[in-house]
Amino acid sequence: xxxxxxxxxxxxxxxxxxxxxxxxxxxxxxxxxxxxxxxxxxxxxxxxxxxxxxxxxxxxxxxxxxxxxxxxxxxxxxxxxxxxxxxxxxxxxxxxxxxxxxxxxxxxxxxxxxxxxxxxxxxxxxxxxxxxxxxxxxxxxxxxxxxxxxxxxxxxxxxxxxxxxxxxxxxxxxxxxxxxxxxxxxxxxxxxxxxxxxxxxxxxxxxxxxxxxxxxxxxxxxxxxxxxxxxxxxxxxxxxxxxxxxxxxxxxxxxxxxxxxxxxxxxxxxxxxxxxxxxxxxxxxxxxxxxx
Length: 292
What we know:
The chain is of the alpha/beta class and 292 residues long. It has one domain: 3-Layer(aba) Sandwich (Rossmann fold), CATH 3.40.50. The chain contains six helices and 13 strands. The strands form three sheets. Strands 2-1-3-4-13-12-11-7-8 form a nine-stranded mixed β-sheet. It has a two-stranded antiparallel ribbon with strand order 5-10.
């Protein structure tokens, strides 16, 4: 009878000890925020504002901490000190390229950027990143093994120019990133052309824009001329290199109003999660990586 009483006392003690220990284990197993590097600067955009919009928008949507590297240089030759070191991306889970550095063509510099992604660091490319780090005859399709193809093959699509500032009708295809996202029309934005879409890419969204006929400077408008409809891929994913590194890209995002639009930030945040392997096939964040 005495042994029964001892057992009756010990069981609640062990149960209580287990309950006390569980929160500690849960805290240890909690999802760690994604460490995201946002590199921005260069020509033609208000990156000082857009970096703030992106950081706030991403961190409010997913479990991530965004570190910003911003260069106030507004020329096409903007460079970033972080890229001057080997292993520059080793401390990050995802890198967002939001630079506009079309004039930077130094091969060792560009190769250092690309090596991080060849080694498996996921990438997100926004807007003018598509028109950065290019040289040679990039106005025509370049073979994937050409000297000037490295940046295009990482992105998964080659673009050379953009259309006028005009609204773009965005239509989504089926994909975990786009699950639940509704088609929308932007404010005045730039529609980037598609020279070629590489086989590694999967189209997420197409854009349609009415464009007025081009005319030479000083030439009067033709009252009989009608606008033409231009279409292009505006969001896509690809797998890069032998490690099939995940890459998400969108050519949208010229103006601050677009970058700050909830629909744009939803798309970018979900693309980031997919690139990091934190988005399920049904389009939901992996446990612990949704809105905190």
